[in-house]
Amino acid sequence: MEVVSTMVSSLGLLWLTLGPFGPGFQAGFGGPGIRIHRFGGARPRRQEHHPQQQRGNSSVLYQLLPVLLLLLFTIVPALFNSSSPPPPTPSFVFETAKPPYTLERSTPQHGISYFVNPSEVQSLSGSKLRQLDQKAEVTFVRGLRDQCQLEHDFRQQKLADAQGWFGQIKDQTAWDEAKVMRLHNCERLRAMGYRPEIY
């Protein structure tokens, strides 16, 4: 019985080796262990063993090469760049002059007065001064919008405090005062031609 099993297993192996799948397909059946199945023609060649240290060093170098090139192209030009950074934009204040901000200028569109330090602007060209005027105007309008929002939020809080449950007014005097409260910064924005979304 054992001889027949071995013979059938050998014939099956031979048929699979040379069978319909071609000479490259091998498989085995039976036995106590696991058989190796190999697909493809020739047997794989064994790799020659090189000293592990030499192969490891070159592998690390190839892996670090992109990082080294990136550093080379970004840091080296910066080291040899002789141009100095642009000077900072001069500071300014609004409403009234406060030393050292004593030189008065005005913005182009709305004529908003602002004050700068004369020593910070004396070397600026005409185009740089126009850019400074524009920046002052944008800063001023942004500040008005922020203040308008704060005023609106304050009024809304006063109205909420005057209300009771289910929207009923519990303090009529506080409600009336909040309703007529003026939002000065919002009014100023409207006078300048801006339309605050909250007013």
Secondary-structure map:
Elements: H1 2-18, H2 52-80, E1 92-94, E2 103-106, E3 113-116, H3 118-121, H4 126-162, H5 172-179, H6 184-191
Antiparallel strand pairs: 1-3, 2-3
Describe this structure in words.
With 199 residues, the chain is mostly helical. The chain has 2 domains: 1-41, no CATH class; 92-191, no CATH class. 52% of the residues lie in helices and 6% in strands. Strands 1-3-2 form a 3-stranded antiparallel beta sheet. Helix 4 runs antiparallel to helix 5 and helix 4 (126-162) crosses helix 6 (184-191). The longest helix is centred in the C-terminal third of the chain and has 37 residues, at 126-162.
What key attributes describe this structure?
199 residues; 2 domains; three-stranded antiparallel beta sheet; 52% helix; disordered N terminus
- The N- to C-terminal Cα distance equals 101 Å
Helix count, DSSP H or I runs of 4 or more residues: 6
Radius of gyration: 42 Å
Query: What is the chain-wise order of helices and strands?
Result: HHEEEHHHH
| Residue runs with pLDDT of under 50 for 5 or more positions | 1-19
- The gross shape turns out to be flat
Overall tally of structural domains: 2
In what order do the strands lie side by side in the largest sheet? Answer: 1-3-2
**How many β-strand stretches?**
3
Largest sheet geometry:
3 strands, antiparallel
* Portion in helices: 40-55%
